[in-house]
Amino acid sequence: MDRKRLPIGIQTFATIRGGDYYYVDKTGYAMQVAEYRTCFLSRPRRFGKSLFLDTLAEMFAGNKALFEGLACYDVWDWGTVYPVVRLSFAGGKLREPDALDERIVAQLQRNAVRLGLGPMPQYRIPDLFIWLIQEAEQVHGQQVVVLVDEYDKPIVDNLSDTAVAEEMRSGLQNLYSVLKDQEAHLRFVMLTGVSQFSKVSVFSDLNNLRNISMDQRFSAVCGYTEDDLDEVFAPELEGLDRDQVREWYNGYNWLGTAVYNPYDLLLLFDQRVFKAHWFETGTPGFLVQTLKSRRFFVPDLARSYASAELLSRFDIRALPVEALLFQTGYLTITGTEVVGGRTYHTLGYPNREVRDAANSTLLEWLIDDPPGAERHQRRLRLLLEAGDLEALGSFFTALYDGIAHEWYTNNDIAGYEGFYASVFYACIAGSGLDPVPEESSNAGRLDLAVRVGAQVYLFEFKVVDDEPEGKALAQIKDRGYADKHLGDGVPVHLVGVEFSRNRRTVVGFETETINPR
After folding, report:
1. 372 neighbors 401 (Cβ within 8 angstroms)
2. Measuring CA to CA, how many Å separate 31 from each of 60, 72, 104?
3. Contact criterion met (CB below 8 Å) for 481 and 441
4. Torsions phi, psi of 42, nearest 5?
């Protein structure tokens, strides 16, 4: 199979089809989506939403030549050409309502020119949008298609300032409210974005909008599947460990087929380096601040639970952490169960990229020392691999003694056991290991377990007053937390760590190793 060009950062369908680029055929999904009159899709950033909308635009515009050899080529009605209105809020950041209004008016103006309409009247935005839709239908003789890319970005970009975010929401609602009343003039409407803002806000006037975000039939509408890698990108896989590719970048799931992040794979194929390609393009500051302000227990990121209703909620003044992390792509669905007629989802990291990079970022703000976070992770990994328990005790002391006193003052965490566990979990998970928080046994739950090569480490944390009490190690032994690992034939290290509630430092560090017989 011949190698093609990698479409890195290209969101224009015509460019990809005309430039000998790799293309994963999503036109089958496009035809299914087009059967609906109104449609909404939520996916994380850089997941191919813009390219999918552009594909729909070219189909509705009747550009058949671009689709030769694709699923829709012999099926789509190319004889009917629709006027397409395109709106996008993907570019730049808008910080003021006036700037949002200017952006909207400018886009409506460009659509009017492209569609060959008459001079645009000096109307308010809702009336201007109505004019554009009705004028386009009259001039072209067909109902209008409206495609909105990143419909929510002006809101999401301002979530750290609730007042501005609400003003942006009102401005967008002013625009989108037109769509329902213009239903008779519209052939198809689709909005894409990251968030699913509640129906009482942005979508209050769009209760006819069909949300396919959690429809298992459309789980792979964006992203690449395992089959896509084999059938489309086979030449690029040469020399790469397929299991490693899967471990690093696969695992995003919306109740159906799991997919890879397309941006990650394209950068991997280009650079041939396993790293956090997607994560490094920008972690929303409001996400970290939300976790910080909520005192979110970091180990819970690996095993959260949420109802289906909670995951679809995104209210500006009451952001559920689980919904925030899921919709932005930092957590994905790993399991589903129905209890009492209500659906609940288990959430976890989609892959190694997100687990490592997210915990590295969280460690940076937990200890307020970005360079130090990297050093700590490297040091911890080396000590665990070497089984050096004495040096591990010194590491714990240095890690927590290095946290600035102002951090405690500003965050009021004296006696907060979850903070100490969160710091260590973020450090160990960010080092590339896969720790198990609150590992269950018949006798209870251990704070943290991790396997490092041919060794198992079991950690228990306690907050005491000023002097060590020996309770952490004693609990591991008394409750037999090591029993489930003794049959593995590897050394099992028991590590009990105690922190002073008042001195905010390690005051007790005890270990014991059980060697295989």
Report:
1. no
2. 10, 7, 28
3. yes
4. -105, 130
389 vs 297, higher pLDDT: 389
Burial, 415: exposed, middle or buried (Cβ in 10 Å; 0-12, 13-18, 19+)?
middle
Give the predicted TM-score (pTM) of the model. 0.89
In the structure encoding, which two tokens stand for residue 505, read together?
Answer: 């430092």
Give the CA angle between residues 268, 269, 271 to the nearest 5°.
Answer: 65
Give bridge partners of residue 405 from the DSSP assignment: none
Ramachandran region, residue 68 (left: φ > 0; alpha: ψ -120 to 50; beta: rest): beta
| Cα–Cα nearest to 23, from 48, 41, 42 | 48
- Distances from the Cα of 467 to the Cαs of 66, 379, 395, 403, in angstroms? 73, 27, 19, 20
Contact 288, 367 (CB under 8 A): no
Indicate the burial class of 6 (C-beta count within 10 angstroms; 0-12, 13-18, 19 or more). middle
pLDDT digits (tens, 9 = 90+) for 99-110: 999 999 999 999
Residue 417 has a pLDDT of 64
State the DSSP H helix or E strand holding residue 259, giving kind and residue range, or none if neither.
Answer: none
Distance CA 461, CA 448 (A): 9
Q: DSSP 3-state helix, strand, coil percentages of the chain (rounded to 5)?
A: 45, 20, 35
Non-local (6+) Cβ contacts of 22 within 8 A are 4, 5, 6, 7, 232, 233, 236
* Count of CB atoms situated within 10 Å of the CB of 426: 27
Q: Which residues of 172-197 are buried (b: 16+ CB within 10 A; e: fewer)?
A: bbbbbbbbbebeebbbbbbbbbbbbb
CA distance 404 to 419: 14
Q: In whole angstroms, what is the distance from residue 482 CA to residue 472 CA?
A: 14
Question: Given a cut of 70, is residue 185 above it in pLDDT?
Answer: yes
- Residue with token string 């380096």: 273
Report helix, strand or coil for 35.
coil
Which residue in the block uniquely carries the two structure tokens 């060959």?
116
The helix (run of H) or strand (run of E) holding residue 338 is: strand 332-339
477-480 LR contacts (CB < 8 Å, sep 24+): 477/512, 479/441, 479/443, 479/444, 479/446, 480/441, 480/442, 480/443
When pLDDT is averaged across residues 146-167 and rounded to a whole number, the result is 91
pLDDT at 407 over 50: no
CA dist 432 and 445 (Å) reads 23
Q: Name the amino acid, one letter, at 181.
A: D
- Taking residue 204's Cβ as centre, other Cβ atoms within 10 Å add up to 14
> Which tens digit of pLDDT belongs to each residue from 191-226?
999 887 654 456 656 667 889 999 999 999 999 999
Quote the pLDDT of residue 276. 92
